[in-house]
Write a structure and sequence with these properties.
By secondary structure, this protein is an alpha+beta fold. It has one domain. The strands form two sheets. Strands 2-4-5-6 form a four-stranded antiparallel beta sheet, covered by helices on one side. The chain has a two-stranded antiparallel sheet with strand order 1-3. β5 and β6 form a beta hairpin.
């Protein structure tokens, strides 16, 4: 009878261990920067201010609503802040949006 009691206890401990090992997905800063450059290279080149470069201060944590502020730069020295926000996480896919931060009221 001891054999039968040991199996449920062992399975219960395994379930607790598995639940504690949840992995949070992240998108590396380098990957976010690549996506920004891909999005802005065409318009910057067409406008005569390319190529585009980008810089993000940290990796993007794969949780819906998480955001980081990155900077996209043009070849003429212009800098444009971008807010990169996670919009969905499905399996290994982390989707995110990019947009300008809100301008202060009365700003140009």
């Amino acid at each position: 009878m001891r054999k039968f009691l040991a199996v449920p206890v062992l399975l219960g401990a395994l379930a607790l261990t598995t639940a504690a090992c949840e992995v949070t997905k992240t998108v590396s800063a380098a990957n976010v920067e690549e996506q920004i450059v891909a999005k802005f290279s065409g318009p910057f080149d067409d406008g005569g201010i390319g190529p585009a470069t980008a810089e993000c201060p940290e990796d993007l944590k794969g949780e819906v609503g998480t955001a980081i502020q990155c900077t996209v730069r043009d070849a003429k020295g212009g800098e444009y802040p971008l807010i990169v926000t996670v919009t969905s996480v499905e399996g290994d896919q982390v989707r995110f949006s990019m947009k300008e931060p809100p301008q202060p009221k009365g700003g140009e």
